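Page 37, continued from 36.
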């Protein structure tokens, strides 16, 4: 890595061009990653990207006048003093708070670079441009701080809520319902058939993990989210699979207790809590009336529960 103080004016201009190109592309990534959930904030980052592009053009014009057409490729990571940046293009969906913090840090770092470069420049034209860009980056820093403290509009909050429901709540709820209900029959059939906590736990564990794997793959392969807006398949599949396994493990874990009667009593209580939680989630996020949600879930769970008991007792 090169020390900043060792850079010539030609190399400083080349580095500045590289910085503006990188900052502009990062802001474009921010705008693209936020456009669905936070369109107003995305528009602000798109405006910052346009400003950075204007800075790049001014730097390119001055570079050509002073040093010709060839611009050496000097990147920020090759010069000491720059902070390592996260690869935000790998992250979807983007977190607004993380983006806000990164934008403020970017503008602070770029402003300090231009101020230090202007102090070192001996060419009057280069010194003037670098000083002007430092002042403009100071304004950008203020804009980034305002974005960081800006309130999210009601429309953006509603959009973010809808996406959260589509991408997290729906697959998670589907998994929780499947794990909590579908594993009841094999678990309690094993309990009443074997009268053994150990055997019942093994059956419940296998049913829960198997259902989690199956539901996770089914959700991930159901659609790629490009048309439905349901987000990345991997995330949805992971959420669905984990919640499915969790739903089954909730009433399986009591069978770690050796006493069969105690384990079954606790498992029945856990099942009741699970069904109430599912009904509440449906009411809270899916706009299902609470009584209707309780009736649907409890009746379905009760039928599966009785089926397991009937088969295990026969």
């Amino acid at each position: 890595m090169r020390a900043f103080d060792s850079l010539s004016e030609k190399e400083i201009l080349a580095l500045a061009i590289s910085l503006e190109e990188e900052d502009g592309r990062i802001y474009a990534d921010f705008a693209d990653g936020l456009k669905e959930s936070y369109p107003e904030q995305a528009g602000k980052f798109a405006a910052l990207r346009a400003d950075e592009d204007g800075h790049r053009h001014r730097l390119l014009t001055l570079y050509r006048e002073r040093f010709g057409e060839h611009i050496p490729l000097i990147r920020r990571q090759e010069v000491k003093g720059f902070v390592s940046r996260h690869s935000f293009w790998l992250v979807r969906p983007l977190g607004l708070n993380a983006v806000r913090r990164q934008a403020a840090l970017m503008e602070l770092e770029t402003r300090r670079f231009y101020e230090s470069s202007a102090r070192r420049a001996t060419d009057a034209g280069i010194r003037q441009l670098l000083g002007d860009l430092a002042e403009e980056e100071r304004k950008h820093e203020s804009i980034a701080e305002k974005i960081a403290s800006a309130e999210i509009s009601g429309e953006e909050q509603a959009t973010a809520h809808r996406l959260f429901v589509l991408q997290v709540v729906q697959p998670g709820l589907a998994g929780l319902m499947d794990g909590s209900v579908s594993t009841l029959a094999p678990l309690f059939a094993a309990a009443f058939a074997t009268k053994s906590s150990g055997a019942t736990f093994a059956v419940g564990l296998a049913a829960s993990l198997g259902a989690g794997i199956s539901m996770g793959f089914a959700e991930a392969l159901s659609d790629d989210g490009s048309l439905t807006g349901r987000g990345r398949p991997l995330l949805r599949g992971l959420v669905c699979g984990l919640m499915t396994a969790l739903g089954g493990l909730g009433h399986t874990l009591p069978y770690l207790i050796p006493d069969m009667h105690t384990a079954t009593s606790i498992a029945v209580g856990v099942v009741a809590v699970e069904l109430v939680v599912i009904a509440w989630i449906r009411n809270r996020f899916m706009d299902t009336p609470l009584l209707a949600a309780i009736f649907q879930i409890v009746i379905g769970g009760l039928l599966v529960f009785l089926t397991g008991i009937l088969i295990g007792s026969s």
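The chain has two domains: 4-152, 155-313. Flag for discussion at group meeting. The longest helix spans residues 39-67.
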